[in-house]
Write a structure and sequence with these properties.
The complex is a heterodimer.
Chain A: H1 3-46
Chain B: H1 2-8, H2 10-34, H3 48-75, H4 78-110, H5 118-138, H6 145-158, H7 160-170, E1 181-182, E2 185-186, H8 192-236
Antiparallel strand pairs in B: 1-2
Helix pairs in contact in B: 2-8, 3-4, 3-6, 3-8, 4-5, 4-8, 5-6, 5-7
Classes of the chains: A mainly alpha, B mainly alpha.
Chain lengths: 47, 237
């Protein structure tokens, strides 16, 4: 790997890391929204 | 309800998202177009503009953990615990990036991916401490003893950071000496264009920290409310 390859790899690692972290946050948010929706539904049924 | 509050905060978040995006765009232009190539190390030296801001962000994040952990132990308020947890997670992510980008920069310059010198080893220890902190957090409920243990670990872990900073001055290490804050003054050890590029990159990463913190803190608060509602539902049955 030449010097440009190392720079490219570092760039990919940083952006990949940030994007993956944002993706995990979004995934956790979706799970929370789902839980909240189910809770609301259950509470509405119970009146 | 938190979802309404989240929508209300959306406007502020949008401003932060756009500011961060613009700052990162400016940083990429500066890193790949504006700044000249360093004469000795060549093009790979540009890794510094990712490596140093990632290190700054992780140290800042762990400083926030340190402060919030003290406040949590003192005031026993869940709010501080949430801030500490969110900041530790971000800190570990960016400390991981430091530990990966460092070897990618070191390999063509030092001829080795890793050396067990004081700076690199102490940074690895910092990463291990806060990874253990996060592992402890996954098993702790709010207000439990484990949350307090995590707070103590969050405080103790931060004490490693001054050691990391001064390690290159106290020992002879492979890692370069500080270039931004030197005995001659701030930024005297760097070319002005390099300093400006590093400054823009530092701003972008700092904005990203605040953006991620905002999202993670809101998420943790929402999680608390969902847990609370779940408990209430179980008790009412």
């Amino acid at each position: 790997m030449d010097n440009l390859g190392f720079l490219f790899a570092a760039n990919v690692v940083v952006w990949g890391g940030i994007i993956y972290y944002v993706y995990t946050i979004q995934r956790r948010n979706r799970a929370l929204e789902k839980d909240l929706g189910l809770l609301k539904e259950t509470l509405n049924k119970e009146g | 309800m938190n979802f309404d509050a989240m929508k209300k905060n959306q406007g502020e978040s949008n401003l932060l998202i756009w500011s961060t995006a613009v700052a990162f765009f400016a940083a990429m232009v500066a890193i790949f177009i504006y700044v000249p190539t360093e004469q000795t190390e060549g093009v790979v030296q540009r890794v510094m503009y990712f490596h140093v801001p990632s290190a700054w962000l992780s140290f800042f994040a762990f400083f926030v953990v340190f402060i919030c952990s003290i406040l949590f132990l003192w005031k026993k308020e869940r709010e501080w615990d949430i801030y500490a947890h969110a900041s530790a997670e971000i800190g570990v992510i960016f400390c991981s990036l430091v530990l990966v980008t460092g070897p990618l920069w070191a390999r063509p310059i030092w001829g080795a991916w890793w050396v067990w010198d004081a700076r690199l080893t102490s940074t690895l220890i910092l990463w291990i401490i806060y990874t253990v902190y996060l592992m402890l957090r996954t098993q702790s409920d709010a207000g439990s003893m484990r949350a307090r243990y995590a707070a103590v670990l969050g405080i103790v872990g931060f004490l490693n950071i001054p050691f990391i900073h001064f390690s290159v001055l106290w020992w002879r290490t492979f890692h370069p000496q500080p270039k931004v804050i030197t005995n001659e003054g701030i930024g005297k050890g760097m070319d002005p264009t390099m300093l400006a590029t590093l400054g823009v990159s530092l701003c972008a990463f700092t904005l990203l920290y605040f953006l991620l913190m905002g999202v993670r803190v809101r998420q943790e608060k929402l999680k608390d409310e969902v847990d609370q509602l779940t408990r209430e539902k179980h008790y009412s049955v």
